[in-house]
Design brief:
Layout lengths: L2 H12 L4 E7 L5 E6 L4 H7 L1 E4 L13 E6 L5 E2 L9 E9 L10 H14 L3 E13 L25 H15 L4 E6 L5 E6 L2 E2 H21 L3 E3 L13 E9 L2 E2 L12 H21 L5 H5 L11 E3 L6 E3 L12 E3 L8 H18 L16 H6 L9 H9 L2 H7 L1 H20 L3 H8 L3
Parallel strand pairs: 1-6, 14-15
Antiparallel strand pairs: 1-2, 3-4, 4-6, 5-6, 7-9, 7-10, 7-11, 7-12, 8-9, 12-13, 12-16, 15-16
Length: 445
């Protein structure tokens, strides 16, 4: 028995833990949970917990339904919102087939595979997300749309405001779970908030994001409000993104840093950016996986719609933040396309795969965008060679369907399921008659 496993078993006994939740996600990024008793944990470590994978979105095909959930002892944490009555802990799981092979449709395994490819080249992939979400008075909405808890704006301090109390409670709970928070503040939209997680390796961060969403939902329930990660819940207001700062390290050295380079960027960093830009349109169906995602991407308010990069340019898809002189470890890039509803395991897999492709193939970085890309005309953007991200989920799926990079990174089963699931979503959206059409056409036609 290794030290981590022994620590978990000892902690369960010493702290009187009554339930242990085994967590994993489906292909769409929905958190799944099964609770086991303390007496079952040692067996779960040794053999896994079996369940019917065909009941989970995209996990297995019906003729290969049996799978096993193997808890990762390094992810053990006591859930603070459960309190001292029936204390409960959680562990994330890796999903395998009965013969011990990784389940091909386990999103956590998809990210592990991609990280292993990076590791073969000597790289460790770090991420640091800025996660936005809306706080609403309730889940219900009327003709006026969802009702935010306040009318505050960017960085506003609202004494006694529910969002202020909410962020304080959420941050404390995240810290109790071992998830370090760098910043928290009110965002630009009414009721919109942002909490930034301190950087970590991509697998730890993907687990942290899934935990983060659960914490935010739990605190909202506790405080009598509703939290949503929907990309664009309120018309005319900013959408919720998950801008992610990324960097590659070779051992203890930041592979993106070069002391004499432009913006202190190394050739590796430039090739990584070039790879991300080249493949951004074809990975968008995963980084922005819902019909509603494209209301955010094409709704303005600093959402990136065009495939550009720039130094501290918030209208660009890839931003190179202001560097700190003599702090090479902080060199990084920020990908601004991902929204808060993305499956972090798959989104980070594709972001890394696109960057690695740029490094492997020696992609050349195009000229940077120095202007506000949104303020340019279509003809000006065309003259500058700025292509655009997909304008709809349907468009994004068409690009993804032809992508060798996405198919190879996700694997055949995940790739096909995402296409099937999202085609169905697009069809349901296309088949409806919307209030906009009724307001515009019913009385006039």
């Amino acid at each position: 028995m290794d030290k981590q496993t022994d620590f978990v078993l000892r902690t369960i006994e010493e702290r009187g833990i009554k339930f242990i939740r085994l967590w994993f996600t489906d292909v769409i990024g929905t958190l799944k949970s099964v609770a086991i008793a303390p007496a079952e944990v040692e067996g779960a470590f040794a053999e896994g917990i079996g369940f019917d994978g065909s009941a989970i979105e995209g996990l297995t095909r019906s003729y290969e339904a049996d799978v096993l959930a193997h808890p990762d002892p390094s992810t053990f944490q006591i859930l603070p919102w459960r309190g001292e009555i029936d204390p409960t802990a959680r562990m994330f799981c890796d999903i395998t087939t009965p013969d011990g092979q990784p389940a091909v449709a386990d999103p956590r395994n998809v990210l592990k595979r991609t990280l292993a490819k990076a590791s073969e080249r000597g790289f460790t992939f770090y991420t640091h997300p800025e996660i936005e979400f809306y706080l609403l008075k309730s889940r219900e909405w009327k003709d006026g749309g969802p009702q935010p808890v306040d009318r505050a704006g960017y960085f506003d301090n609202v004494p006694g405001g529910s969002a202020h109390d909410f962020r304080r409670r959420s941050v404390r709970m995240l810290e109790d779970l071992g998830i370090s928070v760098e910043f928290s503040h009110h965002e630009a939209g009414p009721g919109q908030n942002e909490i930034d997680l301190r950087y970590a390796d991509a697998l730890t961060m993907a687990d942290n994001i899934m935990t983060f969403r659960t914490v935010v939902k739990e605190v909202a329930i506790e405080q009598g409000v509703y939290a949503t990660f929907m990309p664009k819940p309120i018309s005319g207001q900013p959408g919720s993104g998950m801008h992610t700062h990324v960097s590659l390290f070779e051992g203890d050295q930041n592979a993106f840093y070069e002391a004499g380079g432009q913006y202190q960027l190394s050739e590796t960093a430039k090739q990584f950016i070039a790879g991300v830009l080249k493949h951004a349109p074809e990975i968008t169906a995963v980084t922005n996986q819902f019909v509603n995602s494209y209301k955010r991407l094409w709704g303005g308010d600093e959402a990136p719609s065009f495939v550009t990069w720039g130094h501290n340019n918030r209208s660009a898809l890839v931003r190179v933040p202001l560097y700190k002189p003599n702090k090479g470890q902080s060199s990084r890039i920020e990908y601004r396309g991902i929204d808060s509803a993305a499956n972090p395991y798959l989104a980070y897999s594709l972001l890394l795969a696109a960057g690695l492709k740029g490094i492997e193939e020696g992609y050349e970085l195009p000229p940077e965008a120095e202007d506000n890309v949104w303020s340019l005309t279509d003809s000006e953007r065309k003259a500058l060679g700025y292509s655009q991200l997909p304008a709809s989920l349907d468009h994004a799926l068409s690009l993804m369907e032809d992508s060798e990079l996405v198919a190879e990174t996700l694997g055949e089963q995940v790739f096909n399921f995402v296409l099937l699931n999202k085609r169905q979503e697009w069809k349901r959206y296309r088949d409806q008659v919307t209030p906009f059409e009724l307001d515009t056409n019913l009385g006039a036609l």
